[in-house]
Design a protein that fits this description.
The complex is a heterodimer of chains A (269) and B (266).
Chain A: E1 7-8, E2 14-15, E3 27-28, E4 33-38, E5 45-47, E6 50-52, E7 76-78, E8 81-83, E9 98-99, E10 102-103, E11 106-114, E12 118-128, E13 131-134, E14 145-148, E15 155-158, E16 164-168, E17 175-181, E18 185-190, E19 195-196, E20 201-207, E21 209-216, H1 242-245, E22 266-268
Chain B: E1 2-4, E2 12-16, E3 19-21, E4 28-30, E5 37-46, E6 63-71, E7 76-77, E8 84-92, E9 99-100, E10 108-121, E11 133-137, E12 152-162, E13 171-175, E14 180-190, E15 202-204, E16 217-226, E17 229-230, E18 244-246, E19 254-257
Parallel strand pairs in B: 1-4, 2-5, 3-5, 5-6, 6-8, 7-9, 8-10, 9-11, 10-12, 11-13, 12-14, 14-16, 15-18, 16-19
Antiparallel strand pairs in B: 16-17
Classes of the chains: A mainly beta (269), B mainly beta (266).
């Protein structure tokens, strides 16, 4: 753990954006959550909160390579022909996931490394023109949250500035959990054949704005690359640039690959 | 997203710590050889809203532990032998089961899955082709295949926890038999019960090979709780606590017991 604090967080160049692809050198940042980590009674350190949105702001596309064309799953006319049936991409659920291209369902997550008990503060708020305002309206917020899996219980308390604080014990296996606020839940319903927006049978209750906390153990010893008769290739943070990141001969270099090691890394389409 | 077009027998893939976001398709498939192994830990997949966003392949002799998968297709793919999966949390969208064990006739043995937490699932309709169930065996996806009574699928799942809304969770198991089965489930908890109607019902129909021979359906379930109540050989029925609808011809192949005291079908 490089910084001697017993935990390590990351920060990225974020872009809060519920409608479209983010800039290539940025990553999508949660529009709803902020997370801070500290040792009990230590200093808070921000842990960047990422966000995924259904369809990634690219519309109903057939393939990630369709960009900038959009709605390639919908019927279109080519000369005299009507092409392309309206295809189910798996995202339509009776619950409205988008409105005017803006995501109404989101999944946020944060990841940090730790090797001691830590406190994780979760704050809800809103961004207005680049300024974050924390929600302070909900009293007893800690009593209105569930952490799943429920088989692993956590101590949760209210934070003085409006969020909640979750005590995450040291664990050689790390912890991966979902923080779900009761006032943010969404019901998924079916009529037996398809999802419906009302009536029918409730088949799922999920948060509208999911938040996952990934508390990672430190890289195990076996995964630390040792010097040896092999080539160690270290990727740089940011988008993968094939010409420079994969070597001059590109993917051909991977033919002799014996071992591919991946340390904490984010892959995003 | 993780792929290899010419992997060779004996190669290993080690993967520690990544988070895969917004996958458009399967997140890991290697081509070239099936005789490879992977070691995967602290692996996370999020924002898998699209169809066909499977979990990673579990090749023979793989060790996979400490994973979180948001997934809208087969989450755990049991197609190879000698696989250990420990501490997995699954958030399941509506396409295909949590654990897929079917769609081809395979000899599989020595698969151990321990501490599996299903925190969400939402199936829009009752299915057996893309099973709406925690454990699902699809029928053949390709034509020209026949059930194979010379093959056996063997797997042990321990400490399976399924959370659902107050209305309950989907069925425990739905298999269209393609081979013989030897499945052991040790400690199963459906915290909020099973869904009413078809979605909560486990289904295993009778299937015979070309010579009219029935396949074996060895299924052993111990310490199975639904809504806090123990499922036994007295209350497993399709219209009772366990919601099990296993074809009557498999009677005596399978049993439900508790570690406190065993009850067997006689």
């Amino acid at each position: 753990m490089g910084d001697g604090r017993g935990f390590h967080t990351w920060r990225f160049e974020g872009e809060v954006n519920l409608e479209s692809m983010v800039e290539p050198n940025k990553v999508r940042q949660s529009h709803r959550y902020k997370v801070d980590v500290r040792l009990p009674d230590g200093e808070w350190a921000e842990s960047f909160v990422h966000e995924a949105i259904p369809r990634n702001g690219r519309g109903r596309i057939y393939s990630p390579w369709d960009h900038p064309r959009s709605n390639t799953l919908d019927p279109f006319t080519l000369g005299p022909f009507k092409m392309g049936p309206s295809v189910d991409d798996g995202i339509t659920t009776g619950v409205e996931v988008e409105s005017s291209g803006k995501a109404l369902v989101t999944m946020a997550w944060t990841q940090f490394e730790y090797q001691r008990d830590v406190e994780v503060k979760i704050s809800r708020g809103t961004w207005t023109r680049g300024t974050w305002t924390i929600d302070r309206a909900t009293p007893d917020l800690a009593a209105n949250v569930v952490i799943r899996p429920t088989t692993q219980p956590y101590e949760i308390k209210d934070a003085e500035d409006g969020g909640i604080i979750v005590l995450v014990p040291r664990d050689d296996h790390g912890r991966r959990f979902s923080v779900e606020f009761h006032d943010d839940s969404l019901e998924y319903r079916t009529n037996g054949q398809d999802y419906v927006s009302s009536g029918g049978q409730v088949v799922g209750v999920e948060p509208r704005h999911a938040l996952l906390v990934f508390a990672s153990p430190c890289l195990p010893a076996w995964a630390q690359p040792l010097p040896g008769p092999w080539t160690l290739h270290t990727m740089r943070p940011g988008p993968i640039r094939p010409a420079t990141d994969l070597g001059s001969s590109g993917v051909a270099d991977l033919k002799g690959l014996r071992l591919l090691l991946l340390a904490p890394l984010l892959l995003d389409w | 997203m993780w792929s290899h077009k010419g992997i060779r027998k004996g190669q290993s893939w080690h993967c520690v710590g990544p988070t895969i976001a917004s996958p458009p398709f399967n997140t890991m498939d290697f081509h070239g050889s099936d005789e490879i192994a992977s070691t995967i830990s602290d692996y996370k997949q999020v924002g898998a809203y699209f169809f066909q966003t499977d979990g990673p392949q579990m090749y023979s002799n793989s060790i996979i532990q400490d994973v979180f998968l948001h997934v809208n297709d087969d989450a755990i793919k049991v197609y190879h032998s000698g696989v250990t999966l420990s501490r997995a949390t699954i958030w399941k969208c509506h396409n295909d089961p949590v654990i897929q064990i079917g769609w081809d006739a395979r000899d599989v043995s020595g698969v151990f899955i321990d501490s599996l937490n299903v925190i969400h699932s939402r199936y829009r309709r009752s299915e057996v082709y893309v099973p709406s169930a925690i454990i699902g065996g699809s029928p053949f996806y390709c034509g020209g295949k026949a059930v194979d009574p010379t093959k056996t699928f063997e797997m042990t799942v321990s400490n399976l926890s399924v959370e659902g809304p107050c209305g309950g969770a989907p069925a425990l198991i739905r298999i269209i038999p393609l081979v013989n089965y030897d499945i052991k489930l040790r400690g199963v908890i459906f915290h909020n019960g099973l869904l009413d109607g078809q979605l909560g019902e486990s289904i295993v129909p009778e299937v015979k090979d070309g010579d009219g021979r029935r396949l074996e359906m060895k299924l052993s379930i111990s310490d199975w709780f639904v809504d806090g109540k123990l499922v036994t050989m007295e209350n497993f029925h399709h219209d009772r606590l366990g919601r099990l609808n296993i074809h009557e011809s498999y009677w005596n192949h399978w049993k439900i017991h508790s570690s406190a005291g065993e009850t067997e079908s006689t």
